[in-house]
Design a protein that fits this description.
There is one protein chain. The protein is about 65% helix and about 0% strand. It is mostly helical.
């Protein structure tokens, strides 16, 4: 069975092979250890996962990841609010964050489709 790679996967694979040939992949933190489990990455392609990881290590996160963290923080805040008016405002803020997150994810998908 032949596995076909997308263009982003092929670019990532070529760059990894080039970096390995140049010795840039030796001596890195965690070398020789299994990769940490990241269940959320199960729903992204290997190329996207590599891209996200490279950006995270460089201290740059895509907007959708930043918004995902903000949504989790807002949910935690919401759990501790009992005042109905305050709760309604917090729920509206959560909805706004989740909408922006969905828009950012869709924009990335459209960009990657070409």
């Amino acid at each position: 069975m032949e596995v076909r790679m997308g263009w982003l996967d092929r670019i990532a694979e070529r760059r990894m092979l080039k970096a390995r040939a140049e010795g840039k992949l030796s001596g890195l933190s965690g070398e020789g250890q299994p990769l940490p489990e990241r269940p959320s990455e199960a729903f992204t392609s290997p190329g996207e996962a590599v891209g996200f990881r490279i950006m995270a290590e460089a201290g740059v996160l895509p907007e959708e990841i930043v918004l995902k963290k903000q949504a989790a923080e807002q949910r935690a805040r919401l759990a501790g609010i009992s005042d109905p008016e305050e709760r309604r405002a917090a729920m509206a803020e959560l909805a706004r964050i989740e909408m922006r997150q969905a828009m950012a994810e869709e924009a990335r998908r459209r960009f990657l489709r070409g």
